[in-house]
Amino acid sequence: MAPCARPAPGLRGVSMLPGFLARMVELMRRRDGRSLHVKAAGGATAVLLVVMLTGSWAVLVAEEGARGASLTSYPKALWWSVETATTVGYGDFYPVTWWGRVVGTVVMVVGITTYGMVTAALATWFVARQQKRAHPVGAETLHALHERFDRLEELLGAKKKG
User: Fold this and answer.
1) In the chain, helix, strand, coil percent, each to 5?
2) Is position 15 within any domain?
3) What is the largest CA-CA distance in the chain?
4) How far apart are CA 80 and CA 104, in angstroms?
5) Alpha-carbon distance 39 to 155, whole Å?
6) If you ran DSSP here, which 8-state letter would residue 17 be given?
7) Residue 25 within a domain
8) Residue 62: how many CB atoms within 10 A of its CB?
9) Is there a contact between 118 and 45 (Cβ–Cβ < 8 Å)?
10) Does residue 1 lie in a domain region?
11) 88: domain CATH number?
12) Is-contact 103 58, C-beta < 8 A?
């Protein structure tokens, strides 16, 4: 059993979550110091969760009473939305109505977009981390070097003219 964490400031009711979940909630709520791609990936993941939960409900409503419907309970519909968002699509559950297929299309597009954004954010993080290791020069140092090169070019240009 994982130990429960103390709630972060402003997060009442989170004390019942295991430590790692409380930390994740705290990180998602914090806005300072995160890069744009991490914020976008986090926001897209939150949207995906909402779309999967809502899509599960919507496909149940669309499929209710349809002949041959395999989505007859919320747990089945939730599993279907996870399969659909991840593009696994085992084929064990699928919508048979037109509206059910529209819901499926929305879940697919949001899922594909989200996983693409998360993959891009991870790739950007790995590349930036590698660049920092390979080139540990800070922005101030780079600016100073550019100024020195500019002065050297001016001096060389002046000597050629004179």
Assistant:
1) 70, 0, 30
2) no
3) 92
4) 9
5) 46
6) S
7) no
8) 22
9) yes
10) no
11) 1.10.287.70
12) yes
Q: Is residue 7 part of a domain?
A: no
Q: What is the number of structural domains in the chain?
A: 1
CA dist., res. 56 & res. 70, Å (int): 13
Note the pLDDT of residue 133: 77
Question: Which of the 8 DSSP states describes residue 5?
Answer: P
Phi, psi values for residue 20, rounded to 5°: -70, -35
Q: How far is CA 70 from CA 74, 79, 81, 95, 113, in A?
A: 11, 12, 13, 7, 27
Q: Are 80 and 56 in contact (CB under 8 A)?
A: yes
Question: pLDDT digit string (tens) for 99-131?
Answer: 999 999 999 999 999 988 888 888 887 887 787
Contact 15, 5 (CB under 8 A): yes
Find where tokens 């994982």 sit.
Answer: 2
Tell me the per-residue pLDDT of 39-60, one tens digit each, with 9 for 90 and over.
Answer: 777 888 888 999 999 999 999 9
Q: Rounded to whole angstroms, how far apart are CA atoms 39 and 34? A: 7
> Domain residues for 105?
35-161
Task: Compute φ and ψ for 18, nearest 5 degrees.
Answer: -60, 160
List Cβ neighbours of 32 (8 Å cut-off, separation of 6 or more). none
